[in-house]
Specification:
Number of helices: 4
Structural class: alpha+beta
Largest sheet: 3 strands, antiparallel
Distance between the termini: 14 Å
Radius of gyration: 18 Å
Shape: globular
Strand order of the largest sheet: 1-4-5
Order of helices and strands: HHHEEEEHE
Strand content: 5-15%
Number of domains: 1
Helix content: 25-40%
Length: 179
């Protein structure tokens, strides 16, 4: 995360702002910094988008979804002409696609934040105007036993970056998690 964004997080923490209610990342300073990062390096990393309480609740919701996940699929190749297939050596994860906020309230709150961030970035990053909508949220699990992800082409690239991808991490104490 950039120094400017770290400063906004620190200001919010020192000021006692509730991370569930104060969205530091839609301040003009943070948005301008994210836009500069996207221009310069084609990606941007944000920490502290969610408060600890929300991370823990989202993690619990995602863990509960494990029974609804299935083997990941590869499809189409670079041109989209190939059939859908599974290939554990390339993708050994389990995935599911979700978007019902009634069934997934924490995921719904998270997606609201991501949608708001994209909307607010429009005035700072012209390429964001090309983002008309998003797909459902993909929940993925790497179940062990050699499951892995190998870089591959998921779609024909239409912008300098694949936009947006977001990945909340597991809460502190979870295997591989740092919060």
């Amino acid at each position: 995360m950039s120094e400017a964004c770290r400063k906004k997080v620190l200001e919010a923490q020192i000021g006692g702002a509730d991370p569930e209610k104060y969205w530091w990342w839609i301040t003009d300073e943070a948005l301008a910094d994210m836009a500069e990062q996207l221009q310069r390096q084609h990606y941007c990393i944000l920490d502290n988008l969610l408060g600890e309480k929300h991370i823990a609740a989202l993690h619990a919701e995602v863990r509960a979804a494990r029974g609804q996940l299935s083997s990941s699929r590869l499809a189409g190749g670079r041109t989209g002409a190939l059939l859908s297939y599974s290939h554990a050596a390339v993708r050994g994860d389990l995935i599911g696609w979700f978007d019902d906020p009634a069934a997934w309230p924490e995921l719904g709150r998270y997606l609201t934040k991501v949608d708001t961030l994209v909307d607010q970035l429009r005035s700072h990053q012209p390429e964001v105007d090309g983002v008309a909508n998003r797909s459902k949220a993909m929940v993925t699990c790497y179940p062990g036993g050699g499951a892995r992800y190998v870089r591959h082409s998921s779609m024909v690239k239409v912008t300098p970056w694949q936009w947006p991808s977001s990945a909340p991490v597991p809460p502190p104490g979870a295997p591989g998690g740092s919060g």
